[in-house]
């Protein structure tokens, strides 16, 4: 592991112009770690954004293959971060070594996935409509379209995924693939981790000859607003709280030139238990659900925070079994003290709310989060009580019993936008309740059957997004290859000389791409 300097990253160099020092903490003990980090000054924020802007001109014009080489090099550098690095991340986050090792692999895997996307070339979306000079009453001109990067991206790291959703996480990987330099705002909960991963990115950039400002990183509080409002920044990637995402969206909308914010924010990820499944395997469902709720201390954005079932003796028995399993769950050390405070506040609000009863869980006290199970009257959801819509970030979930299918439909319609929804059912259930799917399609980004949402595969088909407030823009995803779409925009060339066109649009098709030519996908050369 290289030395943790705590300096900001600007244009390929380290910068420590400020005098305010920040310190990272051991998430388990609360003790200060032996590293200091320099709060970025207003000038350093400006310089970081300017460096990204200057890099954009050359970085976006590199061939897809050159950018792919950079992404592969970043992946290699991350894979080489060894056991001492893993131990550091564990100290900053209280996450176990096995989790961090797996997340390190996911982080490098994301980089390699986007390298493959670049080599495939489909992200360019090349479309060609050849001229029709003899068309009546008017001829058609030659029209060709493809997509380019929008410009420098501001990325905000997540607390719960110190690697995969942070410095070299999915937002950064997608931005690099799109040809967009990044200014990364390091999360205060794992600054030493960010320092080390930032160093890995810089080493990869140097080895592959990337522009100096392709990656920049700033530390500190209060730097988010000047970063988002800097005129060089053209989009924002964020994973965090609803409050934080809304604040960034407001800042971006109030700029002289408004820019998009792609924020993944809040979700309670309902699990719908269907009757035949409960009759056949209620005990195993209860056991698996309790494990999903408490996995990683419940600190997943896909944590199942709401369980819905139709009133029946089987559902009553299931609730009793889930209560037993939840009462046996061990407490968890959360990522940081702030997260524990927010969890305790959320639990207290549920305990004191009329119409909600506490089923399982020890009193919340001390330095660890106690798993909790609640049951709420369905009327609260039907009346859109805001407390039932709010995520309690930690190892807790809430049960709702509906009277019949009509009330089940009404309950789902009352939900806000979510990242996921899960159907637990037998084949007969899934057939009978197929009418649920159109409702869920309007509410969520991913529908699961007989699985649990705590786990997101990084691949081409994954959607990690959903209607507000799950995300600020339901048209995209922050996980998977489609994430690149957020940082691209189309450009059309009309009657442009073939030799001067971007390679993806030239008649000779030197990149060998599949292109939409006169309405048909083809890799052919145009005569």
Would you summarize the structure shown here?
The chain is α/β, with parallel strands linked by helices and 527 residues long. Helix content is 37%, strand content 19%.
Structure overview:
The structure is a single chain. This protein has 527 residues and is of the alpha/beta class. It is built from 16 helices and 21 strands. Strands 14-15-16-13-12-17-18 form a seven-stranded mixed sheet, sandwiched between helices. Strands 19-6-5-20-21 form a five-stranded mixed sheet, with no helix packed on it. Helix 8 (242-253) links the parallel strand 10 and strand 11 (261-264). Helix 2 packs across helix 6 (191-207), helix 4 runs parallel beside helix 5 (170-178) and helix 9 runs parallel beside helix 10 (313-327).
Give me the Rg, rounded. Answer: 25 Å
- The percent of residues in helical segments reads 25-40%
Q: How would the global form be characterised?
A: globular
Largest sheet: 7 strands, mixed
Overall strand count: 21
Number of helices: 16
- Class per helix and strand makeup: alpha/beta
Mean pLDDT rating: 97
State the distance separating the first and last CA atoms. 55 Å
Unreliable parts:
none
Strand order of the largest sheet: 14-15-16-13-12-17-18
């Amino acid at each position: 592991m290289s030395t943790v300097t705590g300096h900001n990253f600007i244009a390929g160099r380290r910068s420590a112009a400020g005098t305010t020092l920040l310190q990272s903490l051991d998430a388990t003990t609360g003790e200060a770690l032996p590293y200091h980090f320099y709060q970025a000054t207003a000038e350093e924020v400006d310089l970081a954004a300017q460096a990204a802007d200057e890099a954009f001109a050359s970085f976006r014009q590199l061939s897809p293959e050159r950018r792919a080489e950079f992404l592969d090099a970043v992946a290699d550098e991350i894979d080489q971060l060894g056991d001492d690095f893993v131990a550091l991340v564990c100290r900053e986050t209280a996450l176990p070594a096995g989790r961090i090792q797996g997340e390190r692999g996911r982080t490098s895997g994301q980089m390699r996935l986007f390298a493959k996307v670049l080599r495939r070339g489909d992200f360019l979306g090349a479309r060609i409509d050849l001229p029709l000079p003899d068309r009546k009453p008017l001829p058609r001109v030659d029209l060709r379209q493809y997509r380019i990067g929008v410009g420098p991206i501001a990325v905000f790291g997540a607390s719960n995924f110190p690697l995969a959703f942070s410095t070299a996480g999915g937002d950064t990987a997608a931005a690099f693939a799109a040809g967009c330099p990044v200014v990364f705002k390091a999360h205060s909960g794992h600054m030493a981790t960010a320092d080390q991963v930032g160093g890995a990115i810089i080493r990869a950039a140097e080895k592959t000859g990337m522009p100096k400002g392709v990656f920049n990183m700033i530390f500190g509080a209060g730097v988010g607003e000047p970063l988002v409002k800097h005129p060089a920044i053209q989009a924002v990637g964020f994973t965090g709280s609803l409050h934080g995402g809304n604040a960034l969206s407001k800042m971006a909308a109030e700029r002289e030139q408004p820019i998009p914010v792609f924020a993944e924010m809040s979700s309670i990820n309902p699990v719908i238990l269907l009757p035949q499944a409960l009759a056949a395997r209620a005990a195993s469902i209860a056991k698996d659900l309790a494990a999903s709720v408490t996995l990683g201390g419940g600190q997943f954005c896909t944590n199942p925070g709401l369980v819905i079932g139709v009133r029946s003796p089987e559902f009553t028995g299931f609730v009793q079994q889930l209560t037993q399993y939840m009462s046996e769950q061990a407490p968890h050390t959360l990522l940081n003290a702030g997260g524990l405070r927010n969890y305790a506040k959320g639990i207290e609000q549920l305990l004191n709310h009329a119409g909600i009863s506490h089923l399982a869980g020890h009193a919340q006290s001390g330095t660890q989060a106690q798993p909790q199970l609640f049951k709420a009257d369905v009327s609260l959801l039907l009346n859109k009580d805001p407390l039932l819509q709010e995520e309690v970030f930690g190892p807790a979930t809430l049960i709702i019993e509906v009277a019949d299918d009509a009330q089940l439909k009404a309950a789902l319609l009352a939900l806000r936008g979510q990242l996921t929804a899960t159907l637990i059912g037998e084949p007969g259930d899934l057939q009978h309740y197929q009418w649920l799917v159109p409702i869920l399609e309007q509410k969520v980004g991913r529908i699961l059957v007989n699985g649990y949402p705590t786990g997101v595969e990084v691949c081409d088909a994954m959607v990690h997004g959903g209607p507000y407030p799950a995300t600020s823009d339901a048209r995209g995803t922050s996980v998977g290859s489609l994430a690149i779409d957020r940082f691209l925009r189309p450009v059309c060339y009309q009657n442009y000389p073939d030799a001067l066109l971007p390679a993806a649009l030239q008649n000779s098709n030197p990149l060998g791409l599949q292109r939409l030519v006169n309405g048909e996908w083809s890799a052919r050369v145009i005569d």
